[in-house]
Task: inverse folding
């Protein structure tokens, strides 16, 4: 499962289980994810890819400029749950 920058993922395990986040970086095993609220751009979560489910959605670079924009962009995924 290859993750790409800007891809929206769903957390399957851990304290953030059940939440959506966006991938900032991916090195093949670990992904740096951010949700704009608890995990900010300055303090992203390092998470193994096996604990994430990828979605087919991506956020644009505009939507990833700051924490407020990320939080707003991810809000639409909770509405369709």
Result:
């Amino acid at each position: 499962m290859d993750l790409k920058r800007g891809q929206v993922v769903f957390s399957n395990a851990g304290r953030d289980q059940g939440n959506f986040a966006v991938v900032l970086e991916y090195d093949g095993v670990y992904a740096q994810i951010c949700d704009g609220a608890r995990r900010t751009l300055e303090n992203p979560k390092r998470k193994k890819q096996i604990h994430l489910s990828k979605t087919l959605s991506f956020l644009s670079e505009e939507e990833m400029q700051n924490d407020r924009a990320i939080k707003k962009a991810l809000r639409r995924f909770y509405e369709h749950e």
In short: The longest helix spans residues 67-79.
